[in-house]
User: Fold these one by one.
Assistant:
Number 1:
Amino acid sequence: MNLKQLQFLIFILLSNGIVIAQIDSTLLKKVQQDTVIGMNMDAVYNRPFIDVGKFPVSLGGYMEMNWQHLGTDGISEGHQFQARRLTLFVASTISKKIKFLSEIEFEEGGKEIAIEFASIDVELLPLLNMRGGIIMNPIGAFNQNHDGPKWEFTDRPISATQMLSATWSNAGFGLYGKYYSKDWMFGYETYLSSGFDSSIINNPENKTFLPASKENSERFEEGNTLFTAKLGLLNNSYGEIGVSYMGGVYNTFEEDGIVLDKKRRLNVFAVDFNTTLPKLNTFITGEWAWVKIDVPATFTQQFGNKQHGGFIDIVQPVLKRKILDWDKAVVNLSCRLEYVDWNVGRFNETYGNIGEDLWSIMPAISFRPTQQTVIRLNYRYSSQSDILSNPPSKTAGFSLGISSYF
Amino acid sequence: MSKFLFTFAKIFFIAMKKSPTYFLSFTLILISILVACDKFEPMGPEESELLDGPIEGLSNSESKQFLDGDIAFNDDVFTSQNGLGPTFVATSCGSCHAGDGKGHPFTTLTRFGQSAPGTNMFLKQGGPQQQNRALPGFEPEQIPEGATFSKLTPPANTGLGFLELVSDADLLDIADPNDTDGDGISGIPNWIEPPLYIIPTVNAIVQNGKYIHRFGKKAAAYNLMHQTVNAYNQDIGITSVFAPIDVFSGLEVEPEVDINTINDVVFYLQTLKAPIPRNQNDAEVIQGKNIFNQINCTGCHRPSLKTGYSSIAVLSNMQFNPYTDLLLHDMGSGLDDGYTEGNAETYEWRTPPLWGLGLSPNSQGGEYFLLHDGRAKSIEEAILLHGGEASRSKTQYDNLEQADQSALLKFLESL
């Protein structure tokens, strides 16, 4: 963390202390969430906020803390305590049809500080809203709907975080809107933003790795253009399905007017869904994505030109009653299944399958004293093969975490 | 954070007050997990099934250097930011030697330009190695017209420290350039003038400024330092103070890997354990071992050698079983690619160690890619492709009963 980041962190913490010291807590009021069932695209606003009297700004945030004990092929990492993230939200209704929301995240105890989202939304028509700022590209569902307290698992989905680069945000503009009709809701989002760079196929991960572009802070000022669009359809009885696309040129094809390479594109398609089974109240959510990248044939197949993967979470509430002092406490049994093929294709030399496959299964038990707080115990068993499909390395272990909005 | 601790403490006290049975049960489960969490984690493979790992008995400081070398070898990935290429074969050391085992055709490298003992005539045209891949925006190297070439599969790394310490005198004792014992097998060292940065061993034997080289398919690398510096430069396009010329531009550039890292990698290679043979009490394996001796495979694949003195105590004066003589042999026209290195003939190849042979599929994607270029897809095919000095042994293998052939193959798989 550099000096500026440290100063910023101290400022935020001190400011928080000042607010706590000066404001009568009886003035703090939880903002009621929208009673209409929201779509995935509403996730950034569908969070608990605290209003302070008539102060025009609402505050919120969440925190995640984990313990884990994982081992790989007989070598244990031992006990690990992880301050995963502290996220602060600041929202403001500037006027009746103009809103502002920002999300600032401190990861790994402040090692990484990022503005994940900071946008001004202007409602032009009910079906036509403009959003500008640092936006979260709506690819899949998880990128926009990633708050820790919403999930029953201590880790974020591998496909969403490492293949699709959650939480992936960029400077950009776009339009979005929703249309309701009885039990149906249709939503769309479309953005032009800054985007990826060549590091996605030139990085120390030694594989095509979209999140490598997150290291490039220049993208908030300059860089390639990325187009993202998503269509969502929700039925109050059946659930929601979304299809999304993200694509654009990713490489530096010219500089100062001098051509360095041809334009090379990245295309990502994703499908996401969520539903709650009637009677059983089983909540199922998942997404699957396909990544296609124009990797030069003269580069190395170490960096694949295709990837695909996804996850599915099955969450079954098993106890819903007053537990201890909480009136509406819930105990859930859950399971997450994940798969990622980091490098889809065949070797030029042998025509044999390129490996780099990962699968993971993660059963979980979680306790929600309130809707906004979750204590979760997970067990993960995963298998990862190398590029040559040699015997895979196996990782397994427990993790226990607490995550809560505040 | 204090709010969280407060919430946690609140949960604890309320739970104890309101529902001690549930809470104690949950606490007991958690404590059980905390105490026994190792039991829920996957076991590693048997040590004998792995090629990587250090020699037993390293001191703490040696173990630390081994780990530093392990990271540099297996985890450090080169990109355009830290010097990769712009033309290259692989992006890291570990890319070519998965699990420290033999390589795969994906990372097979191609050397070209020397068609007779002596000097490579294509050094000014990119020789001796083709960098067959390039960063985006660059073109990979092409083999110049008229240059002969050979494809070379990356070897396993295990036990290299032992091989490095076999004395020159021992190698000359084994050598039989004129086949005085009449077994059809000669065996000669590759005498080459080493680069200036190489410091010959104390007991090295020199002939007209040339030293016995022993590593590589043609025994053209003097020691593991020589091998490592060349691999950084020729395989990854990484310059060092020892090899400062960039393979793409041909210009001297700033070192892209530091001396300490090279020293750590060399130490790592020196202290990788020797492969552990398996099933040595199996009757068929024992039978196969006897047949291996009877048909004189041991004429080249010598079962045991010994190390000389080493500052690494566990390597000093040790007998070990690599199944090689580290010498060059005529392998016949079938394996003659028309390319060579140092003073080897194009048909001569250094005897590859056979230790770890049975574990090759674990690093070659579940298949065998044997002989110098991976053309043999099984141990038997590799035997049958032997020629030249190995012809007698091959013929004898061919004439064995099927059960004896099977026993021999089982023995080789056990190494």
Number 2:
Amino acid sequence: MQPDVVDLFLARAGERPDAPAIVTSAASISYGALERRVRALAVVFAQLPSPKVLIALPQSIDAYAAMLASGLAGGFYTPLNMASPAEKMRRIAAQLEPDVVVGAPELIETLAIPGARMIDPTALDETRRLEGAGARHDLAYVLFTSGSTGEPKGVMIPRTALAHYADWLGTLGIGPGDRVAQHANVAFDLSVFDIYGALCRGAALHPLDVEGDRLMPARFIKRHGITVWSSTPSAVSVMMRARQVTQANLASIRLFNFCGEPLLKEHLDALFAAVPGAAVQNTYGPTEATVSMTKLGLEAQSYADHCATSVALGDAIDGMEIVLAGGPSADEGEIVIVGPQLARGYWRDPQKTAKSFRAVSAQDPRIGYFTGDWAWRRGGDLFFRERVDFQVKVRGHRVELDEVAAAIRECGYPVACVFKRGEALAAIVEAQDAFDEAALRARLQAKLELHAIPERIVAVAELALNENGKLDRGRAAALMEERITGRNG
Amino acid sequence: MKRLRPLLREAFPDGDAAAMGPMTTADDVVGWDSMAHVGLMAAIEDAFKIQFEPEEITAFANLGELMAMIARKVDGG
């Protein structure tokens, strides 16, 4: 059994109380002072049995302190994305029915949660603290992700699953003296890599809490001498757009970790050209398997061997397993995940839980999480192909939208979204210069069957990212529709 | 505005750079999202030989304020 993240943090705080734990734009705090803050919050949380703690704070010291404090107090936490619309926050709060809400008093009013105890951490009494090892709930956090119906789904992550993941984080060599950036929003589980990767190992956590830093992250890296960087690959696209993927900016980094969306060869080309000595790893995993559960280490000399339409996902980490189900062979199918990092299911939704968490197959009764991601093995590497639900039929032919997008990328448009539109396909691409739709369609004839060539392809200068830093397909679809039917660019 | 206009045209190929003025905000311009914003700010830094502080990258409400900030930095540097 792996140690709990709260116990790991307390051990590090005991060893090096003066080491920096969190450095924000507004303040910094040592391990010892953070421990006092955690214990002071925990004594308030622990007044209720098994408290459900809703964290309504930006990436501040108290947000991280509240995560650890909920664990120490025998409860669990749900972080809110403070940049999301108030309506979405209210829906999450209504589903969770928290016992405790930590946040600014004015926001707590907006959320309108009947019966919850409101805690304004700026008014916290640090003299009263929960001493000792505290108690533990069986859940660590419940993280709400977008459901396909629009109603957020709460993914319940057990403490044992988080401990398993944190144990893997411990194999990455992070330790005192490391400066770990915290780029992902705390409501997006990629942040779990940074938070526990740093605070369980004695490293300093550096949140990007100023919008300007999020827009120019390479400069943030340089200013703080960041040594470990984890984000979606889109953050590299942002750095590339700012022309800041340079040796001067990124020299301090020894480990880049990517997760959350397909990593592309273009990203690796840029990174390895700037910092050929850095270690880069690609990881894959849904929130339902606790952040990530594969790893592929990449090096300047050999990364190209692992690149197809996107970079390979790597092998399952120790203790976890991937089964490819429902495909034509054992080497192609839907990714089904088995192992101790699986979520307990969805918050108060046994129906959705039963649909996604079920026996791997008739022969394999183990419970697996069916991801909806289709993958195949080629030459020993596992590659993401598309979402199962991105498979469409066009005039009777099965078409993989991802395959069409990959063909468009090969024609020199690295950012492309493809949709079913009426009886045919349509696409939207990013293009900086004059865009020749007819020429692109002509080039695609060499790569795709006729029915798979989008009938319309429109271009915009930029496609928007969603709040998790992934390409926002919904907005891309709306923009595409606008271009096709109305305004003409 | 004269030196800024070609940079705006490049950053927002779908926007009407000729129609942009000091009162223009990001919401007025087709294609002014975070990625385009990054591209614009980097292009301004190159063209004017200045460097924005993290707080300055988003610290303007319209192009007039952006121009005033550029002028301050050019004079100051």
